[in-house]
Design goal:
About 2% of the residues have low confidence. 42% of the residues are buried. The protein is elongated. It contains 9 helices and 10 strands. Strands 3-2-1-4-5-10-9-6-7-8 form a 10-stranded mixed β-sheet, with helices on both faces. With 278 residues, it is an alpha/beta fold. Helix 7 links the parallel strand 7 and strand 8.
Length: 278
Amino acid sequence: MRDTVIVGVDGSSSSLAAVDVAAREAQLRDAQLRIVHAFSRLVDLDPMIHGVLARAERRAHERAPGLEMARTVASGETLTVLQSESRHAVLAVLGSRGRSGFGDLLLGSTVVQLAAHGHCPLMVVRGRTDPQGPVLLAVDGSPAGAAAARFAFAEAAMRDAPLVALHVWNTWSEPTPYDGPADPLNVVVDLDALREAHRRRLEEAVAPWRAAHPGVAVDLRLERGRVRHTLLEATRDAQLVVAGARGHGGFAGMLLGSVSQALLHHADCPVTVVRGKD
């Protein structure tokens, strides 16, 4: 059975842009593209079949001639339909804005729920039109980040693009052991040792995937600063940013890490959120 890439459509320009990206992703993987629409009222069904879905198929054929395609038109809540379809997909693609069911994805919790509980990586198309540059991997050194690293390296190889592995560190992002008085104002941090520890974290996080993809040019970047701000700045020069659904030091009750949420809402290029193993 061929792999499947799914894309949610509703007729908006954002969802049609997502079709363009999804068609390319399916072509890169030699996969089938499945165009998905969820509706809540029966009256919506006929125009969707003869209008929106037909336009989406034409866009996909223009982007990737000869691509195998299928449709899913389902009655139900958007998140439920997409979660169900993601069980049989290698990638889900959505636009950042839209109409009807898909229209409020990034305005509420739906996209967070899908990124956190979907059964495949979620790519949200946002930012610059036809972005160029490297694939950007947000590295935090967490066990959950391994799945994101694996996806990012494979994506860079398929796109014949370089990969930038960026790890941002600072002195307040995690506890730092010290010997001295309990007064936090008297804490003395060994910056050189801390920087070296984060460098090792970065190198260890990418080592297995770098070995598996020797043809991918890799740029390891270690930067001290605010994590979300630094990563968002880096998306200005990337064609895609990849992050894990939950990061190092995340709170157990959070559906999605704060860095991933910031990227989904503010990145200047498409964003893929990848879940690790539960």
